TrEMBL record:
Coiled coil: 15-81
Annotated source species: Flavimaribacter sediminis
Lineage, top ranks: Bacteria, Pseudomonadati, Pseudomonadota, Alphaproteobacteria, Hyphomicrobiales
Keywords, ordered alphabetically: Coiled coil
Annotated ranges, domain Transposase DDE: 204-321
Listed name of the protein: Transposase
Database matches in InterPro entries: Tnp_DDE_dom (IPR025668)
Keyword Coiled coil: yes
Pfam families in the record: DDE_Tnp_1_6 (PF13751)
């Protein structure tokens, strides 16, 4: 589970944001210069006072422009093309809503579904959680000294490479797949309508025909196999509902069977996401309620890590008191 715990985003600058600010100041200067030109054509005292005010505003805007130009150079020189004035380590976090981004830190929790104890946590300034699946899964597995853990996560964690990296590590991820654009809006079949046959390494289309492996495309990361039917596709009566091309081509990437196993696991556990919400989101909401509107009192990543570690310790102690009672817990600690 992740959360963006933030600072003032107006004090955070990226290449795009600085460029946009510069464009806004340039537009304002252009408007005031045009107003100044109009005022200069009039000679009365009112226009003279107005000219003076406009000149002051233009000078103020030019000072802003110099500051933004200096910031532009700082951002370009930064390793990740980002500068935060409130906290040098804070970074812009990805969010789903337009214009709702926050600047701060990303907090990850791995929570035991039975007792709601936080078994692992991490604070980072990574902009998203897409690369956090295997690190957090590994920390959770090591923390509970278990050879295998099932990790329930929301679709924000879905990352093909991360899921494949879990194979053989004792981390079993169950994450809903994020769906890219498909043909459903045009009333055509999607890849989900084509059943894959593992034994014969082929797909069966809605018309009952087989698509077999043909071309292999590869890049530096992984191979992609193309399945098609050279004989049946051109004359198939379902072709208008399938593809506008001469042949329907279904792509299958190397490691696709791992993703299919995960999908089968989700289907076998239909309440997986409900369990995730009841477990992690409740825990996170409790901590956010404790911490209030200013989650981190300290600046810099190392201090935020310490602050969160203390909060997690306090949370776990309160949970264990609730589960065991104070006296049994004290006895367990000192024994």
């Amino acid at each position: 589970m992740g959360a963006d715990v933030g600072h003032n985003r107006d004090k955070n600058f990226t290449v795009h944001k600085v460029k946009k600010r510069i464009e806004q100041v340039e537009a304002s200067i252009a408007r005031y210069l045009a107003a100044l030109e109009r005022a200069d054509r009039q000679d009365d005292d009112v226009m003279e006072a107005k000219t003076e005010r406009i000149t002051e505003k233009i000078e103020r805007l030019r000072r802003q422009m110099r500051a933004f130009k200096a910031m532009e150079r700082q951002v370009e020189a930064a390793a990740d093309k980002q500068v935060s004035l409130t906290d040098p380590d804070a970074r812009s976090m990805a969010t789903s809503g337009k214009g709702t981004g926050t600047v701060g830190y990303n907090v990850q929790f791995a929570v035991d579904a039975e007792h709601h104890l936080i078994v692992a946590h991490e604070v980072s300034n990574a902009g998203s959680v897409r690369a956090q699946l295997t690190p957090m899964g590994r920390k959770a597995r090591e923390a509970i000294a278990c050879p295998e853990v099932t990790v329930l996560a929301d679709k924000g964690y879905y990352n093909r490479d991360e899921v494949l990296a879990c194979k053989g590590t004792g981390i079993v991820p169950l994450i809903p797949k994020t769906h890219a654009f498909d043909n459903t809006g045009h009333g055509r079949f999607t890849t989900a309508d084509f059943a894959y046959d593992v034994e014969h390494d082929r797909y069966t289309c809605p018309a009952g025909k087989h698509l077999t492996k043909g071309k292999v495309r590869s890049d530096r990361r992984q191979a992609t196999y193309i399945y098609r039917n050279l004989t049946s596709c051109p004359t198939c009566p379902l072709k208008p509902r399938c593809t506008p091309e001469r042949l329907k081509r279904v792509k299958r990437m190397a490691g696709e069977e791992v993703l299919e196993e995960m999908q089968a696991g989700l289907e076998d556990m239909p309440d997986a996401m409900a369990i995730r919400r009841q477990t992690v989101e409740h825990t996170f909401a409790t901590l956010k309620a404790w911490m209030g509107t200013t989650p981190f009192l300290m600046k810099r990543l190392k201090n935020a890590k310490t602050e969160m570690a203390l909060s997690v310790l306090a949370y776990n102690l309160k949970r264990m008191i609730k589960i065991f009672g104070i006296k049994p817990l004290i006895s367990a600690i000192i024994s």
